[in-house]
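User: Could you write out the 3D structure of this protein bound to prephenic acid? I've included everything you need below.
Assistant: Certainly. Input first, then the structure.
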Amino acid sequence: MANPEMPAEILGLRRSIDNIDAALVHLLAERFKLTRRVGELKAQGGLPPADPSREDQQIARLTGIATESGLDPAFAEAFRAFIVAEVIRHHELIAAEYEAGRREGDLPPLDTFS
Ligand SMILES: O=C(O)C(=O)C[C@]1(C(=O)O)C=C[C@@H](O)C=C1
């Protein structure tokens, strides 16, 4: 039996889905640029890669936004946690590089008088 033809409406919907997927990838790329800098500043300042209290704020805020906008809040939280787990992995790698002295170019100059 031949494949049934794809309705034109589905093809139109797929074009918009592709646009949204592209926007999500661009947004994630920009988010990771910001969190990479956060990771560098944390490594320089001796702060831990993860911040559970900040994450509690994110969860509360995003749960409200998801509920208001009709997105399953459990899905919103799973998506946030997936992204943040990757951010924390990056932060740990950055911190390990600082500790190994491989990112000293990004460190402030040594204060030899203290
Ligand atoms: O805000 C921070 O402290 C971050 O490191 C960023 C971020 C995030 O990706 O939003 C990542 C890890 C922390 O546990 C909390 C938040």
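The chain has one domain: 9-104.
User: Perfect, thank you.
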